[in-house]
User: What shape does this take?
Amino acid sequence: MAQLKVTLIHSAAHRLPKQRKIVEAMGLKRVNSFVLQPDNEATRGALFQIAHLIKVEEVK
Assistant: This one.
C-alpha cells in the first residue's frame, strides 16, 4: 500500500477550529514538519479539508 508524505507549508493558526483539529490529528506540529499517512479514503478526505495548508507527495 502506498503512503502519503504530508508537509505543513502554512500555519494552522487563525484557521477554522475544524481545520486546526485535523492538522493536530495528523500529527503536524510546525510549518515544514511532515508525517507519513496511509493512502486511504479517510486520509484523503481529511487532507481535502486542509489542502490549502499542506503539500502531499506519494511515497512507495
Summary: The radius of gyration is 11 Å.
